[in-house]
Every structure is written in structure tokens, then in C-alpha cells.
Structure prediction request, 58 residues.
Amino acid sequence: MANAVISPKFTIEDIHKIREENYEKTKNMTMAEKIAYYNGLGKEAAKEIEKRKTLMHV
Prediction:
């Protein structure tokens, strides 16, 4: 599934698109699968934050 296209102004419709996409990705997952999925996304986000922090301090 492709990621939702978000408008430059980030409207309420964009939020609805994101929520719908997230629902479609997770609707058939067990609770354990959802936990693993969200934990994985969180770890990816933490890595990206650390990467950006190091770039700011160069």
C-alpha cells in the first residue's frame, strides 16, 4: 500500500487519510503484531531523531 499524499497545508482531510491508511495496515493484525509494528516504527523514529540531532551539531 502506498503512503497517503499529504497536502502542503496539512488539513484535517490529511489526518483522515493517515488514519485510514493506518487502519488498513493494521486491521488484520493481532495485538502482538500491532505492538511489534508500532515498536518498530518507534525505533525507526528514534534513529531518525538521533541522526538529525547529530547533523544539527556538525
